[in-house]
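Weekly sync notes, structure subgroup
Attendees: PM, AL, DS (notes)

Item 1: joint prediction request from the bench team. They want all two components modeled as one assembly rather than separately. Inputs as received:
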Amino acid sequence: MSTVATEVIPVAHFVKGEIVTGTEVEYRPRDSAPFATPKLDLDSLVYSRAEPPPAADVPYSEIIELLMETGDHLRRDPEGFLAEALENMVRTSPMGRPVLEWAYGELWRAFDRERIEFQVKEELGGPAVLDGWREVVDAIGRKHGVRAYSPRLVQIIAGNAPGVSVLSVINGAITKSVSLFKLPSNDLFTATAVLRSLAAVAPGHPVTRSFSAAYWRGGDDAVEGILFRPQFFDKVVAWGGESTIKSAVKYLGPGFELVSFDPKTSMSLIGKEAFTDEFTLEEAAAEAAIDATFFNQFMCAATRFIYLEASVDEADRFCQVLQREMAVERPSSSPSGPSVAAEMRDEIDALRMLEPHYRIFGGYEGEGLVIRSEDPVEFYPENKVVNVVPVRSLHEALRYANVSTQTVGVYPPSRKAEVRDALAAAGTQRVVRLGRAGAAVRGLPHDGFYPLNRFVRWVNDED
Amino acid sequence: MSALEQLDSFLDDEGDPFRPDDEVLPVQLEAARERFEQQRSRIPVLERRAKDVGIDDIKTLDDIVPLLFSHTTYKSYPEAFVRKGRWDAMATWLNTVSAQTPTHVDFSGVSDVDEWITRLWENDHPVYVSSGTSGKLSILPMSQLDRRNIGRFIGRVLGWPNPIEPKQNMRFYQLGPSRGPNRQIDNFQMMVQLFARPDGVHTLSDEPLRISIISRAAEMRQRMLDGTATPAEIEEFENEAAARAAPMGDAIKRLADEIVVHRNEPMFVYGFWSQHWQILQEARALGVGDGEFHPDTLIGAGGGAKGFDMPDDFADQIMRFYGNVRRHRGYSMTEMTQVFYQCPENRYHRPPGIIPLILDASGEHLLNEENTVVEGRMGFLDVNVEGRWGGLITGDKVEIDFGPSCPCGRPGPTILDTIVRYKDLGDEDKITCAGSFDAYVRGVVGQ
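Output from the run, pasted for the record:
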């Protein structure tokens, strides 16, 4: 990343289906390129409660068709919206071009009919509640109606994976919500590019008009103090962002709630079976490397700590193979970077001197670095740094799972059953086969809840 | 005379120790070269860094930048070593960042980190400890010469630009403990030896500062991480923390009474703003008005107002109360052996032993530029320090004027009175779904 002052990058807003350009407000982040946005017009970002949200009565089937067309449009990108956003991302994101190119190339795949229908079935029991009042007969035979009504959402988007923007658009569309995206400074472009594609497919369509995307500095009272009110929005959906969540919490109250995809960390449990033979060792190390380097380890699902049923010598053997595998170029991982930050490097440099308590494999430039230690390190491994801790048994490792643990990858998968209840008790949300940490299944719970189920406003018509 | 000796001589001769760049900078650069040559074989982490970045010799300021450490270097020991009482392993760690080897120290019988540190001091390996918001302690190896140099420097500049003559005639009030492995306390003791009348030294407490209490936050975090902390333990921890933050009741009242009685004599009062506020309250209760203190009195004040019931203009009220006295103000930190002392124009003047290196936010590029005001991250090489490598990148954002003179008429370079911590500027609004456990530990990590 260039650290010398560069030109100011213009960032467009998207307001109720229309692109808004302008560079009236300039931002100068400390460690990335300066950018400028149009001035915010708060009035334009809200929808009066005197009227139903624009998409409230658009049939579900029509929304699905619209999403399919949008997906196809994104694949082809005829106007070059995605291409332009990608170039801007390469200039401003620490992720690096190879992984960003891959991620952008995959964005359209999320617009998949079967997967969306599966998600709606699992999370809402099918589309009936979206289109109308599903009949419910109670215990004494009275008939009522239940509808998953269009919510008004502020969606605080995470910038560490472009797919989050796409999912937020899909989730917003199928719940017929009005959605105001608060853009993160680490991805100022993806959501807007996706929304521009939606607008190209269906200009002026009620679904298109339901979306806005804008940047303001997270926690800015001048914006959030006005907008974060039940008169304008039902819920803040947050993918992280400490300032904004802290700020949103100030405004929570009756009628204004927080749906939080909490900041999470992930780990792996690898059984002694990995040492059965050379093949299993290579297999376990390769799967662990995939999980550790997923999106260059920027994702919450990417593993940072690996607890390994092994002696110290065995663990060192494993670490060697693991580091080699982390250096392999994969679509979701580029060995050319990003490099380890100075503060962490300085800590690791000291740990290097503490053999045999610690042993370090690999280097700082993105090729993957493995720290083997008796106890987990106290810092938060990132930029493809992973900490391998040998344990006598996987059960001994269970105490390292807690409320901040999202994903636990297990090798071999046959041992998931043995640990999953204890992991659930500790606070873990997801137990997966090692190597599949990044392969989240839509329609299953996310961070401990069914997102669509939380997004919608459940309304009753009672007899 | 070596360059290091020459820099040192700036403290001994008649001239002002704060001198212009054209006189100081060439000597500093040569001293940096000497220091690096001497230290790289003695300090393992420096040797490793020098190899990694391919720097064998310091010829320019740019050569120093890749050799600067982050603050994490001095807290890179595994907390588990402390928790499990592995004091030999801790010593092995200390050795990696220290220019001296504590190999002959016997740690048998040591039961906590305070005893470990005491044992190091007893064996001629002084270390200074400082605590950050993370709760993890920085441990900085020193040499005895480093400590003596800190004392010499302060003896030479206390009260600058009109240094006070060390005549052992001042009363000294330290609103804190009298003993402890902490730069400020050690410094106080050295000032006492030079400036204080033997019967006029008072501290808030003679109980030594206990590091293991400070490090309890780190332990608590670990217990929360393990899921073993009980509600009763959390309550106890919070009560202890509240008790520590609370005013020291009788002790400070006793000191305040002393201070008020002797207010017409020169004295040095050093403490937090909140403690000065308590002194003011006590003085008011005794009917003492504003401006009654001896003009040679020196006031040192720091810390914030957080958690204390003080009005917004507490600092003004306190200084009005002391009246026409001198403020002891400088820009320094545990990691520095000298102080950027403040002039009447509120700028901080560069001491001879420290090379300021202003960096971009990434800490990789040097922004120093002659005759101009440069804003950036404060880095520095303290060429004086011999117990460890003195090169460090700080978390402070500073503006420094590399022009030849300060509005006060004395030579530059000077740091402007606009220092802030990057941390206090808020996060960068980079939103991510990935986060550490710290977000889940309310009231224990940071504030």
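Discussion: The CA atoms of residues 159 and 213 of chain B lie 34 Å apart.
Action: AL to compare against the crosslinking data before next sync.
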